[in-house]
Amino acid sequence: MTLRQATPSDSALIRNLAIPAWETAYSDILPEEQFTYMIEKTYSDDAINRQMQDGHVFFIVYLAGNEPAGFMSLSHETEGIYVLEKLYVLPSVHGTGAGRFLVGKAEEYIRTLHPGKNILLELNVNRKNKAVGFYERVGFHIDRTVDEYIGNGFYKNDYIMQKTVKG
């Protein structure tokens, strides 16, 4: 597997990777109206470009043969804390280690920017998402529960999970 940092010209690719990943992750959790609202709010070209302008760094993971398989994004929220904003892999590559690879690369990226420092890595995950178990297996723990209003009458019902990236 290989990784490269995304640019604004990758917004369509990111959206095309996000939709099938989201369908697998959220079709049994979210009502269709909320799913559609969140996809448009988060993965339109404008939304992705705005996130990049706001400092979110996107990375795309490729399988052998240069086939895109998923993506992640990170943001630096406050001193000592990064947020794994997104981590999605195509359903066809679940179980291949692509998700674990992305988490490892997120940690490596943080260590490169903050050598020798311990940094907290946080993420939001829907409380009913099967990915909770994955995140626990790669070292995250549930820190707290949040219900965040996201607009249009919808809420995110998430866990905030954390792990320490040792410098």
Order of helices and strands: EHHHEEEHEHEE
Estimated radius of gyration = 15 Å
* Major sheet attributes: 7 strands, mixed
Could you give the order of strands across the largest sheet? 1-2-3-4-5-7-6
Portion in strands: 35-45%
* Global morphology: globular
- Cα(first) to Cα(last) distance is 24 Å
In helices, the fraction of residues equals 25-40%
Q: Unreliable segments (pLDDT under 50, ≥5 consecutive)?
A: none
Query: Quick check: average pLDDT?
Result: 96
E-strand count: 7
**Annotation field: number of helices:** 5
Determine the structural class based on helices, strands and strand pairing.
alpha+beta
Notes on the structure:
The chain has 167 residues and is of the alpha+beta class. Helix content is 36%, strand content 38%. The chain has 5 helices and 7 strands.
Short structural description:
By secondary structure, this protein is of the alpha+beta class.
Features:
single chain; 167 residues; alpha+beta; 7-stranded mixed β-sheet; 7 strands; 36% helix; 38% strand
Please outline the helices and strands.
Elements: E1 2-5, H1 11-26, H2 32-43, H3 45-53, E2 57-63, E3 67-78, E4 81-89, H4 98-113, E5 119-126, H5 131-137, E6 141-151, E7 154-165
Parallel strand pairs: 4-5
Antiparallel strand pairs: 1-2, 2-3, 3-4, 5-7, 6-7
